[in-house]
């Protein structure tokens, strides 16, 4: 993770924005999700989508769901469904909607 303050852009950004994230990489198994903070003038409330993590391990699905739910809002508690060993929906503390799915199997 690289904050703006640790980049060559630091001098060009107002001091109150320097702790924002310029680049982050999150490893999920063998996949990587890249992210960054947006500028306040560019913020739009996330809507019309969910980020879905599809997992093979129920315990890992429970752990991730619990971590993302901390400070957020659970919309559908994680539980067994007719299609999944575990499935749940939530909005994390940053307003990002998630679906956690663990296949039966």
Instruction: State the name of the first-level CATH class of the largest domain.
Output: Alpha Beta
Q: Between the first and last Cα atoms, what is the distance in angstroms?
A: 35 Å
**How would you characterize the largest beta sheet?**
4 strands, mixed
Compute the gyration radius: what is it? 17 Å
- Structural domain count: 2
Strand content: 35-45%
Assembly type: single chain
CATH fold group of the largest domain: Signal recognition particle alu RNA binding heterodimer, srp9/1
Count of helical stretches: 1
Q: How many strands?
A: 7
Whole-number average pLDDT?
A: 92
Order of helices and strands: EEEEHEEE
Biggest sheet strand order reads 4-7-6-5
Binned, the helix content reads: 10-25%
Description:
The chain has two domains: 1-43, no CATH class; 45-105, Signal recognition particle alu RNA binding heterodimer, srp9/1 (2-Layer Sandwich). The protein has one helix and seven strands. The chain has one helix spanning 58-69, and strands at 2-3, 21-28, 31-35, 51-55, 73-79, 84-91, 97-103. The chain has a four-stranded mixed β-sheet, covered by helices on one side. A three-stranded antiparallel β-sheet has the order 1-2-3, with no helix packed on it. It starts with a strand and ends with a strand.
């Amino acid at each position: 993770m690289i904050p703006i303050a640790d980049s060559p852009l630091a001098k060009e950004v107002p001091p109150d924005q320097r702790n924002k994230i310029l680049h982050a990489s999150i490893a999920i198994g063998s996949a990587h999700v890249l992210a960054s903070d947006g500028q306040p003038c560019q913020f739009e409330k996330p809507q019309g989508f969910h980020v879905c993590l599809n997992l093979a391990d129920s315990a890992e699905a429970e752990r991730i769901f619990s971590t993302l739910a901390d400070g957020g809002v659970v919309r559908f508690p994680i539980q067994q469904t007719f299609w999944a060993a575990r499935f749940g929906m939530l909005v994390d503390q940053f307003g990002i909607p998630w679906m956690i799915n663990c296949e039966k199997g």
